[in-house]
Task: structure prediction
Amino acid sequence: MLNSIRPKGRVIFGYLVIPVVLFIFTVFVPLVAALFYSFFDWKVGPNKIFNGFDNYVKLINDRTFWASFEHNIFLVLFCIIGQVGIAFILVMIISSKLVKLKGIHRTFGFFPSTISAVCIGFIWTMIYDQRRGILNFILLHMGKINSMKDGPIWLNDPSKVMTLVSIPLVWQYIGYYMVILLSAVASIDTEVLESAELDGASGFDRARYIVLPLIKNTLIVCVTLCVAGNMKAFDNIYVMTAGGPGYSSMVMALYGYKTSFETGYLGYGSCISVAIFVLSLIVIGGSQALLRSAMTDKYDKIEAKLQKKRDKEMREAAKAKYGKGGLR
Amino acid sequence: MKQKIVSVLLSAAMAATLLAGCGSTAATTSEAPAAAEEPAAEEAAPAEEEAPAEEEAAPAAEEEAPAEDASAASSELAYKGEISMMHFSTSEEAEGNGGSDAMRTTIASWDANHPDITLNQEVLANDDYKTQIATYASADELPDVFLLQGMNTISWVNQGLVLDLTDYITGSPYADKYNMDYLVPFTVNDKYYAFPALTGGTCTVVIYDSALWKEAGFDEFPKTWKEVEEAKKYFDEQGIDTLAFGNSGQWQLNSCFVSCLGYQYTGTDWFSNIIAGNGDAAFTDDAFVAALTETQRLFHDTGIFNSDFNAINNEEAREYYIAGDAAAFIGGNWDADYIKANLDEEKYKNTKFAVLPQAEDATKYEKFQNIGLGYGLAINPKVADDPDKLAACIDLVQTLTGPEFADYVGENYALGGFTKADFDLSAFDQYVQDFYNFSYVDNKGCEIYDSYVDSSVWSVLNTEMQEMVNGDKKPADVAADTQKAYEDYLAGK
Result:
């Protein structure tokens, strides 16, 4: 019966091949092309000269690139704490019984993540502006500065600029992670939370010992998305500082772009792209492994060990009872 | 069965749509949104590809072409078909910018006069244009006619991306009216590769409010930086900045300041040697380092500039001048155009122009202002395969840089281009006359650094100078890093 309405194998194949082709053309081909071009000395124009691993040697010694990598790592850490961390706190507040109009909170929280990063960049450039910005306006009215002209020139301070360009990113994506985490929290059985409340668990206890372990997998997904997103951060930094002052807010993607399209070294630019890909994989893989081990409770570990032991005993008992072939 | 056929057709159509994304550039060109607004970019079915004409005729026709052009300019062209063209005179850009306005007007009139030729234009804003044209160059798919940036000339010519136009420039019907100085950025081994396009404008001009400076005790703008520093005391009391400048884009400090101040220290030979790459000049030369040191001192130590110069761009900085928050502004001709359109009547009357003041230790001071044409109209060498098409392209670029263009910018904006124009300057008001005299008559023209050499060199200099004027990097280190980028460029050339 089921077989009669089941489409033929090649029909299924025909439909499935479409996304595969799409994937190959948009991800795989550019990646392989970048890898290929990264072995060439190629300045804008049709002429390319094969130069083996020269670009990679140059990359390893390129201080600006590694400074950009550090900035990306800073951005990742800042945003994991800022985006996912604050989103989690907000989720715990919103899911409390005391908060009314949850839908509105959810909608407005999600709003900034629908605005384009370029607009966000412009909005925050205005906020940080020395003479017309709201930040210095507040400082002025708090009496911290005498006039707007005496206020800090926020985006021109190399020691603060990375933090300042990270804040808009945090602001933009809190709502995004909030929505993901809210749906995970909503799937927790309310009876578990209620019984914990009856047992006298505080709000913090419930968040730490019940909610967090139960949404572990969602949290790992959020952190992965956050790391991946920030390893390729580009647009709002490009708008706000273009990597400046000097190289103080340069990130890898921006450096790759500038190398390719401003200085015209396309071969080296491809090499940077490959490096971004590899470094991102390492950082994402590393963060996942770290998170999994951190989130695995010591009781979980004991439990897993016990389970293994029980399984082994059962297998041995079965072997003893049914002979060499074991339980069939 | 029917269902099966339909499903196969549907998936084929979807796959085809996907693959179309990687299709020919011709399709992309006619679909580009910017091009869509152009009168020329008709959605009509593209004419069949012109088969390359008889090959043996090509070289001969090529040589004869200049002679034919004289008549071609006024008569019918033999070519019927498409010409692809790329430029950055968008409709937004054309508002208030004389060169862009004239470019659009001349293109439209040429297009109307040649109904048999379909001109497919791709018009992008300048920043996007630079990225896009570099991408086409790398894929060897440049349009038939495009704007070549002076600093790319050598490397693109060496890669065979640009047609040698020497004969068409010297043999042009308008050759006697050409200002040959503007050809320098487009010259390689004594051959010309582009018709200098748009208008020649200064990149460094001090725009000041003469009434304010009179109050400060100066009948005209100070001749030395020392006097500017003295004037600062007065303007501080008034609560306004002495000079407004914006460098958040990083190129401004190079194009609108150092490119001019540098000449006061190095004189004219130094940069000629840098362009030639003959080893007689280096960015680490004492004179250039001294220019950087003075730049650092002026921006970092004296306080004559608005303190947020590195966090705002030139567009924001000129607003300080317009709003009366600064007594003067340093920018380029594009800023002068904008300021002109946005001043109140009294300030408009009081606004005057000056060259950069003299630095105390500058030994080669003259009244320098850097002027030139940064872009030239160039032709893809592949066009030469079809002599008729080449003749049409030559006619197009000669028109776009010829008297029709020059008269339009002259009469409407009092600006000059590659072709000299006759117009009545006295018909314009004082502001326009003053700026014309500043740009073309009164001062010593010098080169715009980044019209030459290579973007990889300027990218290093621009980025590091931004740190330098913050006081975070030594001028000598900036010079050394720039020199390294310059040597890398020379090695690759």
The first strand of chain B starts at residue 81 and ends at 87. Chain B has 21 helices and 14 strands. The interface with chain A takes residues 4, 7-8, 11, 14-15, 18-19, 21-22, 130-131, 134, 137-140, 152, 155-156, 159-161, 248-250, 307-308, 310-312, 454-456, 459, 463-464, 466-467, 470, 472-473, 492 of chain B (CB under 8 Å). Residues 300 and 470 of chain B are 6 Å apart (CA to CA).
